[in-house]
Design a protein that fits this description.
With 441 residues, the protein is of the alpha+beta class. 31% of the residues lie in helices and 30% in strands. Strands 1, 2, 3, 4, 5, 6, 7, 8, 9 and 10 form a ten-stranded antiparallel beta sheet that branches. Strands 11-12-14-13-15-16-17-18 form an eight-stranded mixed beta sheet, with helices on both faces. α5 runs antiparallel to α6 and α6 packs antiparallel against α7.
Amino acid sequence: MINTISAIILSLNLFHLGNISGSSGQDYQAYQGEVILEGDTTALILEILQDDFSAISWSLENAGRHRLPLTNLVYSPTSQSFKGDLSVFGQELVGSLEAKLIDSGLKGTLLWHGQRIPFQLSQTAINRHYTEEEIEVNNNGIRLKGTLILPKGDQRFPVVAFAHGSGHATRWWGMYWAKEFAKMGLASFLHDKRGCGESSGNWMKSSLQDLVSDIESSIAILKEHPQIDGTRIGIYGVSQGAWVATKLGARNPELSFMIVNSGGGVSPYEKEMYSYETNMRFAGIGEKGIQEGLALVEEYMAYLRTANNRQQLKAKLEAAAGQAWYPILGLQHILVSEDNVPNWQWVATYRTEKDIKQLDMPILLLFGDHDHIIPIEKSMSSWQEWLSKGGNKQVEFKVFAGAGHGLRLGGHHSTGFPKYAQNHIKFISTWFQNTGIIPSE
């Protein structure tokens, strides 16, 4: 490995690459160039840590993809080339990349959702408007690795703690948002979920309370940080993270703000039933098949509530394996053991009313009117009802036209690179200013 790294360093130094000032005095060597997909043009940026060329990050500018690690990286010193996979959340693959060192920089191919896109990148210098600081959090023996994104400056900043959506998730999916928050003057803390990336534990064996306590432990450390204003700490929850944020806010009334992107209000059970149904409809499943699938989901939810009849449920899943709707539901992958049901029970039983009524801070609720994962009208009405009953009038709703889950545009029929709701960042920045979290421009 030492010889391989030395060979890469030697090769790249010959090309006098531009540098990026990173965290803790680290320098990155950067390449940038255009990539074109179905008439959509954006900038591809690759960053390579000078003293560790087994670490390469990739960005697609204006596409919500910022400084994500290139996974399964392989380097060949003989051909002076490398290849790796592209992932947003750390496990799923959205494509791959291969490149070769040439005198003018890098030349290679980006494989994006099955399409091959040639590119040639030139050396570049990028001055980031933030620094990165690695932080380790210990929560009752669970070791969580995270990154604190700090705007440049000597003052104390408000900070946003991120709450993950469902499934496997490392911290890097949030780098796009953290970069934009830093431009506004806010710090961000992103962590690898339990059992993901560099964190210990197992999210598959963790409850809602566990996920909330992970962020509580992180906030306790952030309060002591010399560049964090402990009176301006908030939470940003996306999708499933909305329920984590809701529970967190109810348990920690000292939090000063909350942003929810595409989630909450309704119960997890209501959301799951809705998304399973819409997923089957989008897949072209007929009405009879949809009702059969939903009936099996109901039995699965009953199992999560009681931990009873697992063998019967397993047998029904096996019997349904030939149905067209079976792989769409994917219940066979989340049929947890009886011992693990207490950690998953909240998916079938958690009600949001009590916690929402306890929230007493400025809240921004963001939705897309093309979201087929959550029932947005019911979600918004639930938020509004319970916040109103709790006496919280510090709430603002925003529904972005044409946006789907997570505020992404295009949905199942999108072309080109990822795009997000128009002016979403400007809207959030204005909200932060209006609530006094950051100074007005």
